[in-house]
Amino acid sequence: MNAENALVPLPVLLPVLAAGVKILIGPRRPLLKRAISVVALAAVLAVAVALLVRADRDGPQAVRLGGWPAPVGITLVADRLSAVMLAVSSAVTLCVLVYAFGQDVAERDRDTPLSVFHPSYLLLTAGVCDAFLAGDLFNMFVGFEMMLMASYVLVTLGGTMARVRAGTTYIIVALLSSMLFLVAIAVLYAAAGTVNMAQLSWRIAELPGPVARIAEVALLAAFAVKAAVFPLSMWLPDSYPSAPTPVTAVFAGLLTKIGVYGVIRAETLLFPGDHLRRLLLVAALLSMLAGVLGAMVQIDVRRLLSFTLVSHIGYMIFGVALGSAAGLAATVFYVLHHITIQTTLFLVAGLIDRRGGATSLARLGGLARTAPLVGALFFVPAMNLGGIPPLSGFLGKLGLLRAGIAQGGALVDVLVAGAVLTSLLTLYSLVKVWNQAFWSAPPDDPRDDPRDDARSDARGDRPQGARAVRLPAAMVAGSTALVVLSLAYTAAGGPLYALCERAAAELLTPQTYVRAVFPSGGAT
Q: Quick count: other Cβ atoms within 10 Å of Cβ 471?
């Protein structure tokens, strides 16, 4: 490991070391534990930004751990794609951690004990970083499993019946996708004799077509489950909403994007070409429509957001399926936008729950008057997700639509129309939340139809009205920071989109990645 590349392993090592220190400290000294977590994640963010600057200026940064040469040893690679996703993910995890402090999930809430939450959260962050930086498929699998093992703890934190039930579904699906990932790795290793992605980019081209297609389908299926691509997404709306708000937010923002990242790597570095292009286009269209139609009929804010998450994964798969530089650039931009926006909306849903006493629209109303700050924090990311210009959601969708129109073809044209329809229906779903939760009269208002109470009683969710509680400053600060970050994407839309275009160009020239891993040309 040379001095220039010494930063590359730090995003993985720092959270692991911090988690170990916190476990050694034990259940006491919560303020010290808070400080350790914040310092560790702030350091990860600083390192990620430094790696992004270096990767954009000098090209991919590769490090061979332990001095073992590739493909024998573990190789970590920070190119433009992995570095920019690392930077955004680090910023998001830090803001969510601050929110968690305010919600008291870390100290006094018996459903989310400090001694479990913080080490698990740090290990999840380390797993996310390792998955982004992994230079071989098995190390990526290790990163996935590190992330998933921590997520198993977080999704069932507190052991309530609802969380255990939802967590069981989540764990079963995650284990099945991991098994499928291992099968794909085994097929590739048996056929190509390596799991190093730079070396595979050469050797897969020499494999018989049927063998390569089997490996590609297995790998994409594993990533599609993790990304919640329809029809492999039905587990998500039942699993995410039951977890504590910070956990749900970071799951929604990051975990599905790990799967999207895997799809991007597979379709650009390992299996370039249009072998499964039509299949990906169909999956993208079905994800958009199934997700947004599910969102339209939901009355719970968290479930509605979970369905919009599925629908917007379709946009990302759309750009990957196009396979063009314009499509990939728009996809990378949209992934960065969506990590931030989806996380923000779930955090604000937690504010709505705390201030309004529920997340069911049948029990909410009048929050624009009683909690105007929550209204502002919801309105901005909601309009952003809906694609209102000039926000970053509009920029990303416009880029995808332009790339699709430029490429043409009957199926692509249908997908462009589906993307426009999905954006309009997403806006409708979020406006419904705004009208019901913020603009309409509170449900216990005497002007309400008394038959609504009877229907609520039948469902077991009689309206309770808003609670006069004060929102903790840290919860508001974490949510506000993410709203500001999302607005920064709009303010810096030109330079950020240009960075995404450079990342896309780099993805379409895998020789750059290969040379970073094998400087002497030993990839064959």
A: 18
DSSP assignment letter at 522? T
Query: Is the preceding omega at residue 71 within 30 degrees of 0, hence cis?
Result: yes
Residue 215 backbone zone (phi > 0: left; psi -120 to 50: alpha; other: beta): alpha
Can you name the residues that pair with 196 across neighbouring β-strands? Answer: 136
| Helix ranges, 362-462 (H) | 367-370, 372-386, 392-407, 410-433, 450-459
- Which residue matches tokens 């993910």? 89
Q: Is pTM beyond 0.85 here?
A: yes
Q: CB of 436 within 8 A of CB of 421?
A: no
Torsion sign across C-alpha atoms 118, 119, 124, 130: positive
CA distances from 244 to 156, 370, 412 (A): 9, 24, 39
Please say whether the dihedral angle defined by the alpha carbons of residues 348, 351, 356 and 362, taken in this order, is positive or negative. positive
Residue from 132, 119, 124, 118 nearest 87 by CA: 132
Q: Is the dihedral of CA 485, 491, 495, 501 positive or negative?
A: positive
**CA–CA distance, 419 with 403 (Å, rounded to integer):** 12
Q: Residue 225: count other Cβ atoms within 10 Å of its Cβ.
A: 21
List per-block mean pLDDT (blocks of 10 residues) for the chain, which spans 524 residues: 73 92 76 87 95 92 80 86 94 93 58 67 92 92 90 76 76 88 91 89 85 89 90 80 82 90 92 85 94 91 92 94 93 95 93 84 84 91 92 93 91 93 94 88 54 35 50 89 94 94 93 85 57
In this structure, what token pair is assigned to residue 135?
């230079």
CA separation, residue 247 to residues 64, 160, 161, 239, 369 (Å)? 33, 15, 17, 11, 29
Task: Report whether 162 contacts 242 (CB < 8 A).
Answer: yes
With beta carbons less than 8 A apart as the criterion, state whether 357 and 109 touch: no
Task: Give the phi and the psi of residue 386 in degrees, each rounded to 5.
Answer: -75, -10
Question: What CA–CA distances, in Å, run from 47 to 95, 228, 325?
Answer: 16, 30, 28
H-assigned helices in 156-244: 161-192, 197-203, 209-227, 236-239
Other CB atoms closer than 10 Å to residue 452's CB: what's the count? 13
Give the residue among 293, 285, 294, 400 at the shortest CA–CA distance from 338: 400
Euclidean distance between the first and the last CA atom of the chain, given in angstroms as a whole number:
22
CA 59 – CA 80 distance, rounded (Å): 8
Task: Give the integer Cα–Cα distance in Å for 129 and 82.
Answer: 9
